[in-house]
Amino acid sequence: MAAVLETSDVLGTERLNSIPDSIRGSAAATGLHHVGRNLVEHVSEHVEHLDFFSENSIGACVTCCISMVIWLVFLPIFHIGAVPWMEHWEAEHAMTVANFMHRAEETFATPHVAFEALDANGDRNATQAEFQAGAANFKRPPFRYPAEEWPVFKLIDANGDGMIQDMEFYHAAPSGLELKWHINMTDLKKRAKQGYGYLDSYYTAMDINSDGKVDLQEFITMAADVQPPVPEEDAKRLFNEADSDKRGFIEPREWVSYNVSGTFDFRTLLPAGVLPEGPRVAMAVEACLRGALDILQFDILTVEQVSQVTGQARQLSANAVTLRVPFTVFVGTRQRQSTIASDVKMLPSALCTAAFANSISGGATTLLPPGHPTEPPSQKAGPLSDSELQAYFKVPAIIQGHTELLLSHATTSVAGISQQEGPLKDIFKAAVDAFCKCSVTVDSVQASEVQDQTGQGLGSNKTVVVSWSDDRQGGGKFQKLIQDSGHQLVHGVYESIMKANLPFMSGVSLDSWTRFTATYYGQKAAELPRGTAIKQYYGHFRTLNKAIRNDTGTPPFVTHP
């Protein structure tokens, strides 16, 4: 303390020394120098405290400023940039209904079996607790935390009653069906007909930009509009299936095929040396039909074997003959079908005969769509080799078949058999569909009595002719399947008909024989090694003299006049 006082005296004396002598003398006389010294000491102490509080104040101010910068600058930037990214990241990893169904598909064979696992008490209602417990048994459990389960449960629970009914679960599945996870083309077309009445009406709806064709995005958009909606992945797969020529869009006839068939006779003059069944006549007949029926790019015209009407002698000089022309036109809309059906009734029209005459005399014929050649193949007639047939595997084709069912010792009249044509049609279709994993169209079933060629009065033998068709994406694969396993199809048809126990089949033995033609079309058809019309037989046919014609396993073949 003495040291402090001494120091203060020194400081005070120094400060007093700096004051002028007159003032210093007055201060000494009055004792002010002691007051000044005390004041200096007091101020010095407070200055030390002031320095301490100034440092804290500055720090507080800096902290406040930094906080304001963070609140006003960095937090908005964080919310604008980082928060959306984090939400997007979370959304990518959040469980969706589609992901949930994919996990269920990995574990269970059908949506029905999956729902059974989620419905512990079997009352066809899955509570949230049952749903969560059942999902935990998936091969890959979909929910890591209980909170992840509720959004998925809520979306599947369409009526919001707090439980998932079985039909709600099936509706949310990719197929919208109970017994399979994904739909096929038949399912899609069924939904399209339910929503739009006709398949071509749905096609018109799919053609959103009205350019006459349907691209992938249009197909996906409208597939999501049917009930139940078709998931995008399934829609992409079905689009590729429908786009048979792989041109990137679906043409009207690729979506649905309506057909008009007909046969007409007309009399004409043929040049010398031209046979009625020859290639020149075939080309001229096609020109006739294209001109008269106004065949468009996406239509398909198939002309079966043109022949001279029976009873007329064949001459190789210039002569007038009557030609019989069987044909079928495949179109993509009912409107086109109706228009062509009206034109067919007018055949042979003046336009048809004029086009025929122009072509047969060497004039130009109507141009065909790209990839659909008019001239018959130049290769020799006969069966196709395996390597040749492989070229047809991925080329689309119209299959037109005629199956003859020989009913030996059938006592029922033709009229009685005709009454069963409906059930027989369904039985035949089911057997063929099961064999080729396809859906053929049975055009007609006609019963008739076998003509007695022996004079022994075989009136008990009847025949039923089934005409059927199909539009195959891979015509060659179908023909290869017939070549390798035709006997299985013959046996399947036989077993199906016999098991049905139709009334007219009592005591009847059954044989069958089928002939069909695969007519190939599309861009690749022009490059096929043996032409576009490939025929094939299969079946075993018992002739009247008990001989058996067996064609189960013969290769496809080409015929030429």
Descriptive report:
Helix content is 47%, strand content 17%. By secondary structure, the chain is an alpha+beta fold. Helix 14 (279-293) runs antiparallel to helix 16 (350-360) and helix 19 (421-436) packs across helix 20 (475-500). Residues 1-8, 312-318, 364-377, 451-459 and 543-547 have low confidence and may be disordered. The N and C termini lie far apart (141 Å). It has four domains: 97-172, Recoverin, domain 1 (Orthogonal Bundle); 185-253, Recoverin, domain 1; 258-360, Alpha-Beta Plaits; 384-558, no CATH class.
Across the major sheet, the strand order is: 9-10-8-11-12-13
Q: Compute the number of strand runs.
A: 14
Shape: elongated
Structural class: alpha+beta
- The average pLDDT score comes to 77
Total helix count?
Answer: 20
Low-confidence stretches are 1-8, 312-318, 364-377, 451-459, 543-547
Approximately what portion of the residues adopt beta-strand conformation?
Answer: 15-25%
Radius of gyration: 45 Å
Distance between the termini: 141 Å
What's the number of structural domains?
Answer: 4
Task: Say what oligomer this is.
Answer: single chain
Major sheet details: 6 strands, antiparallel
- As a percent range, the share of helical residues equals 40-55%
